[in-house]
Specification:
alpha/beta; 15 helices; eight-stranded mixed β-sheet
Length: 480
C-alpha cells in the first residue's frame, strides 16, 4: 500500500505534486500554512467559485508554494466524517500517478487527523493488478504527508486504511483467481505474517464434522468450499467477539440461476468474509486487548450435475435441517453453519456480516446497510457505525415472519413470505442458529459494491464497507 507519514514542515515549502487545503467559505487556516499564502490561495479559489460542499474541488496552479498544484476541497461542517470524505474526494484531483501529496486540512484532534489520512488514501485507491500497462500495474499511490498529525493518528490511519483497502483488493480480484481455496491460502499467509492463528476446514473435514450448509452450496463447483477460522487471541483479553462473514466467491444462483446481468457484480458476494479477515488482522496490528475470532464461510455457488437442487433437504452444523426452495438463497445456508459453530466457543457476542439479500437495497438503498438482532447488540453496532461514519439502520425481526420459514418436510426452509420483508426474513432465519448468544446481523448487500461513480473516499467497485464499523465495535469492547 501507499506510504503515509506526518510532517511538521511549513506546507508551502514542501516539494510535492499536490497540496490539499480545506474550504468552509474561505480557505481554512492551518498551523503549518503561512497566512499570506493562505490569503492568496483563497482569493484565487473564490474567483473560481470554490464551494464548502463536502467533496467539491477546485484545482489551482501551485503559485506561491512548492507544490505543482493546489487542490481546494469543501469540508462542510469540518466534522470527522466530513473531513474523511473531503480528503477522499480531493485525492482524485491530485493528478496522474503523483509521487508526493501534502494534506493540510484542519484537524482538531487525533481522530480528525486519522480520518483525513485514511480518507485521502482510500479516495485515491485503485485496483490495477490486471492492467497490461506495466507502469500502471506497478503504481501503488503517492507518499502522503499529513500536516500536523501525531504519530498515533498516522498509526491508526495506516491500520484502518490498510484493512479497508485489503478487503477491497480481495473482492475486486476476478473470481477466476479468487476462489475458496485461494482465500484460505491468503488468510494463512496473512496470519503467519501478523501473529494471527488460522485454521482451515478442507472439504473432507467439512463433511466429517457435518457442515452441511457450506458443502451444499459449494458442491456444484469444481473448486470446493472451505471454512476458515482466523483468530487474534491476546493474553488477558476480557472480551471474546466472534464475527462470521459470508464468502461466496462467485454467485450464479446455482440451479435457481440468476439473470446474466445480475451476475456481473457477483464477485462481491464475498465482501462479508473479506471484511472479517481484514478486521481481525487490523485488531492484531492495533494489538487490541480483545479476543476476536473470525469465521470465513467460503463457497462458489455454481450450477452443475453435482449442485444442490430446489427441494433438497440439508443438515446444518449442529443438526437442524433446512429445505432448500431456492438455491440463490445460499448465503444464509453457509452463514448458518458458521454461526452454529461460532457459538460453540461461548463468545461474549457474535456478529455476522453478509451481502445477504437484494431486499436490503430495496429497503435502504445503495449506501445504507441494515442491522438486526438483539436490541442491545443492534444498538451497539449502530453506535459504532455512527462513530465510524458508516451508515447502518436498525431493523426489526418480526415474530410473524417465523411462520414463513417453517417447512413441511424439515425444521426450516430457506425462503419465507413472498410478499416482502426479504431482508428481515433472512435475519429471522439466521437467528435460529445463535441460541442465547448476544447477536447482531449486518446486511451490507448494496453498500459493499459501488456500481456507480466514486464519491468521497468510496471508489467504484468494492468499497470495504463494514470494516470501520467492526473495528470500532472491537475498540469499544476492548475498553470494557
Amino acid at each position: 500500500m501507499t506510504s503515509m507519514n506526518a510532517t511538521s514542515t511549513a506546507v508551502s515549502t514542501l516539494a510535492a505534486d499536490a497540496l490539499i487545503l480545506g474550504f468552509d467559505g474561505d480557505v481554512t487556516s492551518h498551523d503549518l500554512l503561512d497566512e499570506s499564502v493562505r490569503v492568496a490561495i483563497a482569493e484565487a479559489a473564490t474567483a473560481l467559485e470554490a464551494s464548502a460542499k463536502v467533496g467539491s474541488t477546485v484545482v489551482l496552479p501551485g503559485t506561491g508554494v512548492e507544490a505543482k498544484r493546489v487542490v481546494v476541497v469543501g469540508i462542510g461542517d469540518g466534522s470527522e466524517g466530513a473531513l474523511r470524505e473531503a480528503a477522499g474526494a480531493a485525492a482524485r484531483a491530485i493528478g496522474t500517478r503523483p509521487t508526493t501529496v501534502v494534506v493540510a486540512l484542519p484537524a482538531a484532534d487525533d481522530a480528525a487527523a486519522s480520518a483525513i489520512a485514511e480518507g485521502a488514501v482510500l479516495g485515491a485507491y485503485s485496483f490495477n493488478a490486471y492492467k497490461s500497462d506495466d507502469v500502471v500495474a506497478a503504481y501503488h499511490g503517492p507518499d502522503w504527508l499529513i500536516a500536523g498529525a501525531s504519530d498515533a493518528a498516522i498509526t491508526r490511519a495506516r491500520i484502518l486504511a490498510g484493512a479497508v483497502a485489503g478487503a477491497r483488493d480481495l473482492v475486486n480480484t476476478p473470481p477466476l483467481d479468487m476462489f475458496p481455496g485461494a482465500v484460505a491460502e491468503i488468510a494463512q499467509s496473512y496470519g503467519a505474517a501478523h501473529g494471527v492463528e488460522v485454521e482451515v476446514w478442507e472439504p473432507q473435514r467439512l463433511a466429517d464434522e457435518g457442515f452441511g450448509g457450506i458443502l451444499a452450496v459449494g458442491m456444484g463447483s469444481s473448486r470446493l468450499p472451505r471454512l476458515v477460522k482466523v483468530e487474534w487471541a491476546p493474553e488477558g483479553a476480557s472480551q471474546h467477539v466472534a464475527i462470521i462473514g459470508k464468502g461466496i466467491t462467485f454467485d450464479t444462483g446455482g440451479i435457481s440461476l440468476k439473470p446474466s446481468k445480475s451476475m456481473e457484480t457477483m464477485k462481491s458476494d464475498m465482501s462479508g468474509s473479506a471484511a472479517v479477515l481484514h478486521t481481525v488482522l487490523a485488531a492484531a496490528k492495533a494489538e487490541l486487548p480483545v479476543k476476536v475470532t473470525g469465521w470465513l464461510c467460503m463457497a462458489e455457488n455454481m450450477p452443475s450435475g453435482t449442485a444442490q437442487r430446489p427441494s433438497d433437504v440439508i443438515r446444518i452444523y449442529g443438526g437442524k435441517t433446512v429445505e432448500v426452495l431456492n438455491t440463490d438463497a445460499e448465503g444464509r445456508l453457509v452463514m448458518a453453519d458458521g454461526l452454529a459453530r461460532a457459538v460453540e466457543d461461548n463468545p461474549d457476542v457474535v456478529l455476522d456480516i453478509a451481502t445477504l439479500t437484494g431486499a436490503q437495497g430495496v429497503a435502504l438503498g445503495t449506501r445504507t446497510a441494515g442491522v438486526m438482532g438483539d436490541d442491545d447488540i443492534r444498538t451497539e453496532v449502530v453506535d459504532a457505525a455512527g462513530a465510524a461514519d458508516e451508515p447502518f439502520w436498525p431493523m426489526p425481526l418480526p415474530d410473524h415472519l417465523r411462520e414463513g420459514i417453517k417447512s413441511k418436510v424439515a425444521d426450516l426452509q430457506n425462503m419465507g413470505d413472498p410478499n416482502g420483508g426479504g431482508m428481515l426474513t433472512a435475519g429471522v432465519f439466521l437467528q435460529e442458529f445463535v441460541g442465547d448468544t448476544p447477536w447482531a446481523h449486518l446486511d451490507i448487500a448494496r453498500p459493499a459494491f459501488n456500481e456507480g461513480s466514486p464519491w468521497g473516499s468510496t471508489p467504484a467497485g468494492a468499497t470495504g464497507f463494514g470494516v470501520r464499523t467492526l473495528f470500532r465495535f472491537l475498540e469499544e469492547r476492548a475498553g470494557r
